[in-house]
Amino acid sequence: MGEVALGGGDLFLVSMVAVIALLALAVAGGLVREVLAAGQGTPRMQQIALAVQEGASAYLKRQFRTVGVFVVLIPLLLLLLPAEGAGVRIGRSVFFVLGALFSGITGFAGMWLAVRGNVRVAAAARDAGERTAMRIAFRTGGVAGMFTVGLGLFGAALVVLVYRGDAPVVLEGFGFGAALLAMFMRVGGGIFTKAADVGADLVGKVEQGIPEDDPRNAATIADNVGDNVGDCAGMAADLFESYAVMLVAALILGGAAFGAQGMVFSLLVPMIGVVTAVIGIFAVTPRARDRSGMTAINRGFFLAAAISAVAVAVAAFLYLPSTFAELDGGVRVDADPRLVAIGAVLTGIVLAGAIQLLTGYFTETNRKPVQEVTQSARTGPATVILSGVALGLESAVYSTLLIAGAIYGAFLLGSGNTTVALFAVALAGTGLLTTVGVIVSMDTFGPVSDNAQGIAEMSGDVNGEAAAVLERLDAVGNTTKAITKGIAIATAVLAATALFGSFRTTVEAALEEASGDAQRAIGAAFLDFNLSVDQPNVLIGLLVGASVVFLFSGLAIMAVGRSAGRVVVEVREQFRTKPGIMDFSERPDYDRVVDLCTRDAQRELITPGLLAILTPIAVGFAFGYAPLGAFLAGAIAAGALMAVFLANSGGAWDNAKKVVEDGSLGGKGSEAHAATVIGDTVGDPFKDTAGPAINPLIKVMNLVSLLIAPAVVAAAGDAVLRAGVTIVVVAVLVAAVVASRHRGAATGAPLPRATRR
Amino acid sequence: MGEVALGGGDLFLVSMVAVIALLALAVAGGLVREVLAAGQGTPRMQQIALAVQEGASAYLKRQFRTVGVFVVLIPLLLLLLPAEGAGVRIGRSVFFVLGALFSGITGFAGMWLAVRGNVRVAAAARDAGERTAMRIAFRTGGVAGMFTVGLGLFGAALVVLVYRGDAPVVLEGFGFGAALLAMFMRVGGGIFTKAADVGADLVGKVEQGIPEDDPRNAATIADNVGDNVGDCAGMAADLFESYAVMLVAALILGGAAFGAQGMVFSLLVPMIGVVTAVIGIFAVTPRARDRSGMTAINRGFFLAAAISAVAVAVAAFLYLPSTFAELDGGVRVDADPRLVAIGAVLTGIVLAGAIQLLTGYFTETNRKPVQEVTQSARTGPATVILSGVALGLESAVYSTLLIAGAIYGAFLLGSGNTTVALFAVALAGTGLLTTVGVIVSMDTFGPVSDNAQGIAEMSGDVNGEAAAVLERLDAVGNTTKAITKGIAIATAVLAATALFGSFRTTVEAALEEASGDAQRAIGAAFLDFNLSVDQPNVLIGLLVGASVVFLFSGLAIMAVGRSAGRVVVEVREQFRTKPGIMDFSERPDYDRVVDLCTRDAQRELITPGLLAILTPIAVGFAFGYAPLGAFLAGAIAAGALMAVFLANSGGAWDNAKKVVEDGSLGGKGSEAHAATVIGDTVGDPFKDTAGPAINPLIKVMNLVSLLIAPAVVAAAGDAVLRAGVTIVVVAVLVAAVVASRHRGAATGAPLPRATRR
């Protein structure tokens, strides 16, 4: 694809895109100033907020130190992998680092402001009322949103400006860096937040009999830090990665299908998204007659979506020609490229809306599914679990069918040409993500109001109507969080589907170059690119790909359990060695628990992380390129279903608990409440640890496969090399899994007996 | 494949196989006589056993009436589908009925003797001691085992004798009939048994305060009937189906790869299995120095496996030539067919042993995984659920990797030829199933001893050491049941993988015949058979295939919940209208509850059943043959993982409860016990309803796809026909899903509040 030549006009447009991306960062700066200018409440509130800020920075320090090893090592390894031209190869490594850096910055920025916005939201609820509180919360989220789109778009535009026709290979590096860092932040953050949550509850509420969010509990700050670490930093990095990888896929395929205009148009769509996101974020200004906070958010979301749709149509008609023959490069198909582009982007925008409605139906408190889960609490926790599992399985299917429908729509737009079809899939992905700025803002909204509520309760300075305001904001945040997860996994499936095009191109080029030895090893049937799953060895790849998703989920759920046990031990120890904590004469060492959770989260994420990086290498070298392709397909299918299953089961249990707490079936303290609390606890690692990490997992495996594909084809004839790589990689994987199981046994401190909450 | 010509010697051997199959039925007759000759205990015991027998026959009556509709309708529909020659087409329909009939007879026979063996086992435990009790229990299971192998082998041999070279198409009908009936019996039996179980507990133990298995509870008999309906009839039909479909795959591929000798050898392997199963069953005669019942069972299993391995090797050397060139038909590969055949069968036998060990590790009470689940009960039910889910997910991966390893081993034996590789996969499947006679006997052992224990408790006539004997037998039964499920899903994956060969052959023939219109619609890329999953439309098939497994599981779990609610209403009503029940002056109407469960199970199985039959039709006609092939691959991957996940999570929870009941963590009545009871209740529909039904689900979808494949290819150019079929099929599916959700709302009788057991 090196033949795509960008003209002067094209480069000017790409420069424009880069400038607009930087403007998004300027908007973020403005939002930061606005949020920081708000009042910070009472000294007690500020003191608690400071502890959370300390904890968050302790976490980030450690997180970046661990991940730094990978960010240094992997670019060196990337240099060893074949690619055309030394310059491109170096560029790929450099942009890997940049992708990781941008992903980290997005997470950092989102979290940095979230731990400052939280106390200001609490103060506003106390001093200025609901509408101001909500505005601050949403503007806080807006910063993460602007960083996501600004840095993602800027990075992609920069690659195109510098590398032009060679951009695709360099973009793979950029996307891989972003996805890898996001996966670590998602898994690490997810383990941290749930370990702290469960650990704090077990010692504080159960053993010491002190309330939730009591400042005497050394794990309480960690619990509040966790909300930011998981839901802010992890989520922001994750959506940045979704955005970046989607752009990578669109740029690669845009060049192949539409030539130079395809690459530029792939940047114009998200550029429009940046502008409409700004409009959307500022549109979320609550009005007096809004029914709930969700009304204002929906106004912003659907406004941004509608303007995007119109603007994309206008851009397509202004910029794209009416026939494929007039394009600079790309394929020749008898269709109107403008209609293909508009249709694809609209498909994505409609998909975003459909997922929002579907997720809402299955997880909102006032709809039938959550009501049924709530009613099942009459017969105890077992029926709560069963109904939640059944709901999750069913909703995952509908969500997956929606995504499949969008892919099929895009496929039909391809008019029989696979390259055009795949570009249409990628464009649908960019369409889905035009609203990502608003979505990230919506999602960050959740932990910020959750934290605001925590600070309010801990300080005791926010009461009455102000506390009720924060309760309502928190409920809105729960809904937006579930929706974001649905959108995120849809981007993963679309990006992965589109990247099959790059995988094919890469493998085909390598097959042409392969030596006679390699060709004989690949076999005649597979010298034409072919991932036909009726071949037993290809089907094995599929089985392994689906297996990785199951193993990854199981490992993440187990890690939370182990880590929570260690939090219990640490907090107990602090109560023992600092007897003054209970009468407030000594301050617990919050940093120690935060550091423990951080260290644990880092250690626990190694095994799932290695799984993501190494399994494609093992499959590729052991079985060949076709099983590796099927491996990706298996991971996509199992991943889409598992991610939505985990997210929606968890969301439904959480909200069933809320319904009971609002007074149904006896309210707080009833047997039904105890049953739904159990459901919610089961759902915690489902929806906040394992489920959301599947999105970056799929991307990482995809990009690793793409990067190693040429090496896999070249090594086909070298049985010794293949066996060697396979044995080393499998040995490392087995050691990692065994080590993580062993950790469980070694630190198995006896946990306290749970009593009814 | 019509060109395979069986010579006179071949036909003589096949006749021999048929005779030996009939001898297996004669052995079954001998076992029946032996079991029935045993003593039946006290009059009270006999009265209870009679009630269970009445219930079982009430269930069977209804089950066969419902399923009868399908058994009449589908053969007529099959006549409409294209196939070479009217005789073959009629034969396919006739053998569909025969497959269904044999499947039904196997289930019926297994259950008929189980409901008579149960009381005799209880009586033997009371009057004759452990060894006699165990022998009767195992001989009772042996009848189901002998029926499974006898009827399966006889049916397959009959098809070959009558249709010779045309056998493959007719065999598809035979396999489809067997699989469809088995699926209905598995789903129906699974819903019945868990609805009765949960319903009986909720009214009896919770509301009325009467013990489990109290004869005053109208649902108690249904509960005991359920054990037989689910674990005997459903399981026997399921394993018969596995056996029959595996033979179908082996015969089809054997003809293609090895010519006439391939077909005959595919029958010789299971014939050897029949003989060794008889040896194995009679070898399970407990000895005085056996450590536990499991020792005797292992002796039978591994003896049968070892003799099979040796005998198969001898048969291969006696019957097969040393080069492919000497075979009557088949392909020409530079390898020794005898070594290929022996290697493949051994792979299957080793896989059976490996699954047995792996399943044992993850579900036995004295191994680390179940111990960890048990320890998690210290922190309450939520951690029990989480650790069980994590264990299930992880073990599913190892099991799937073992199966994948076996497929890869068989693939390598194919020496680069796909047809030989697929035949090797099928032969591995027959190897796996050489021990099926022993396995079915092992599995039936479970419900028989479970029932024996129930009858003993209800009658109050079996106490002390005799009761302890039955406890021990029940524990052995739990282990064997888990192993059987692992083996069953392995056969599903191997059979489905092998049947891809038939799918390919069928589609290729249809592609050649396709008209110009159809060819244009299929497109140049797909005129060569190709299921390459990088194509977006093919990938969609994969997504839908994996989705069906998730939806099917979710629907089955929901159905159990709904049905249990209706049992509660019925039993309450009987207590109200027959006040004499409580003082034993009136007899509850057991048949009404049994009939209700049966009727409900039949109604609830319609939706999952339609899902299995109609989804492949929708995918095939809407998207084409390649997405249909990928659909099967997606279902295989998701199905293998989901089936083992559900079975092993459920098995581990069940045994964690047993560990606590044996005195750990405070024993019965402790908080830890309550936590594990909740885990066990969640596990019930996992392991006994949704999980085991996935095996026949995969087969049914596979065979439906195979049968409609020619029609799908022929219809490629006819957009109106395709749209019409798709719309009708999807409408029926949506209506079925909506109706099953609506049923839940309409009969949502308020359930009682659960209290701690």
UniProtKB/TrEMBL annotation, chains A, B:
Record-linked Pfam families: H_PPase
Cofactor(s) essential for the protein: Mg(2+)
The protein's Enzyme Commission number: 7.1.3.1
Broad class of enzyme this protein falls into: translocase
Localization: Cell membrane; Endomembrane system
UniProt site positions, description: Determinant of potassium independence: 481
Reaction(s) this enzyme catalyzes, per UniProt: diphosphate + H2O + H(+)(in) = 2 phosphate + 2 H(+)(out)
Alphabetical UniProt keywords: Cell membrane, Hydrogen ion transport, Ion transport, Magnesium, Membrane, Translocase, Transmembrane, Transmembrane helix, Transport
Membrane topology: Multi-pass membrane protein
InterPro entries associated with the record: PPase-energised_H-pump
Major location (coarse): membrane
Regions that span the bilayer: 12-36, 64-83, 95-115, 136-163, 169-187, 243-261, 267-288, 300-320, 340-363, 384-408, 420-440, 482-503, 538-560, 605-623, 629-648, 696-713, 719-739
PANTHER family to which the protein is assigned, alphabetical: K(+)-INSENSITIVE PYROPHOSPHATE-ENERGIZED PROTON PUMP
Subunit structure: Homodimer.
The protein's role, per its UniProt record: Proton pump that utilizes the energy of pyrophosphate hydrolysis as the driving force for proton movement across the membrane. Generates a proton motive force.
Family that this chain belongs to: Belongs to the H(+)-translocating pyrophosphatase (TC 3.A.10) family. K(+)-insensitive subfamily.
Descriptive protein name: K(+)-insensitive pyrophosphate-energized proton pump
Naturally occurring in which organism (per UniProt): Actinocorallia aurantiaca
